[in-house]
Amino acid sequence: MEESWWVASLKALETKAQRMGALTKMNTAIAKEAALPRQIIAGLLTNPELYDCARLSGDSGKDPSVDVALELLGHCLDQLAVDTADEQLPRLLGRGLAHSNPALRSLVLASVLKELRRQLNAGQVHTLPGNELLFLILDELKQPETEGSSLAINILSIVLVQRLSDAGVQAKLVELLQKDEIVRCRAYELGVVLAKGSAASLTAVEFILDAALSELDNDDVLLQASVMEILVPLAEQNHGLSYMERRRVFDVISTRVQRIEENPLDALLIPSIMKFFGKIAAVQPQKIIAGYPHMLACLFQQLQSEDETILPTAMDTLSNLASTPQGKVLLHLHFNTAVEESFKKYSSYTKKLSAPIKERLLNSLDVIYSVETPPTKEINAILKTWYESFAGGAQANAIMELINTPFPDLQLAALGLLKTICKYGWGIVALKNTGGAVEFLLSRQKDLHKDVKFLKWEIMEMLAISSEFSPTETVRFTAYVNEGPYHIQADVNIATEPQGNA
What we know:
Elements: H1 3-12, H2 16-32, H3 38-45, H4 48-53, H5 64-79, H6 89-97, H7 102-122, H8 132-140, H9 146-159, H10 167-176, H11 181-197, H12 199-204, H13 206-214, H14 221-231, H15 238-246, H16 249-258, H17 270-283, H18 285-290, H19 293-303, H20 311-321, H21 325-352, H22 355-369, H23 377-391, H24 397-403, H25 408-421, H26 425-432, H27 437-442, H28 450-464, H29 471-483
Helix pairs in contact: 1-2, 2-5, 3-5, 5-7, 6-8, 7-9, 8-9, 9-11, 11-13, 11-14, 14-17, 17-20, 19-20, 19-21, 20-22, 21-23, 22-25, 24-25, 25-28, 28-29
């Protein structure tokens, strides 16, 4: 189509009665074009009437032209050579980024993010010519919708570092900190992402991190919990951990637990505090396990509580603490009796808690026993002792009882843990010692979920190469494995001839 046709079609949008027809024609035309000239794309992306078509009305019924306009603008963005170094880009994207329709803003943000990720993969992020595009994207953090803000944070985490020391950028960030708690939390999340990048970036956004820490004195328990969750990734880098130590973050938060009787409302925060320390321990086990014994004591108390409202978080926290080799060794060194008592309690929980909590328990154990590299003899021995505290010895009855339940998700979680346990020699011995376990794995029950059948088959693969079984058993296991996970045994009918009269 000639440029004049596009100009005429855009002109038609000024008349509401002609909008749907004009939008449909332009959509059809652009879909057939591999690459329209840039001036046509620019004309479309800067046309105010086209953006008016994409505007949501206050009426309950949605104007069908909105979706068609969004589709057309999506085609334009696909054909636009988005280059963040282009001085014209803010002019081309500005109407979309400032639009009232969140779906359109997300469309534009996704286009920018796609280009930035391409630049990252190519090894060079282009230098921004100014602040205009940044300011438009920072404004997204003030919007009520979450989809666009998530895209904006991802974009800013890549490009904002270029201009962090710019006075205009700093003023814009300060402005975010003066908004409501949702916007402030987005600013804190952005600050943490940027601070992780380097010590220099952390210094540039330290005022954001300090503002986040000040929220921990807020009376709003949910806000405090959100801020703790946001701060966790900061400890993944040494410079972030150093900042948290300088600001005595761990001491301040742990003191809340020690002085719980002085402020009973803080009891509502304990699950969030446990989650915070557990996630920090997953990356800095020495700091937490050796440095805050009263936090661990509080955790083990929670694990004995039988309270289904706090047990899921407590179980996840223990699995975080024990997720690394160093974490396992430190727990064994400083809190082995408490860990063993917790595992014994887990055994009783498998018999009396609700199915979703049992599933959470099994998943948390799976995290503890999953290892990326073969365990050392020391860790192997630690895990064996902990397992036998849970199982009541070298057997797997507790797990098998959960496999034989009518809840598919619980079955899968139990089989998943059994598979993980069988990566250890002592785990295979425990399974072998359990009456009916091998027979169940070898059975070909037709009514089992396909994922259950596959997990059974994966476990049999392990047993088939184990030296714990006799040659005869190994032959049976190998035959099962060779038949595949979904093999159906043929029914054998023995027919007999009727006896005739002699």
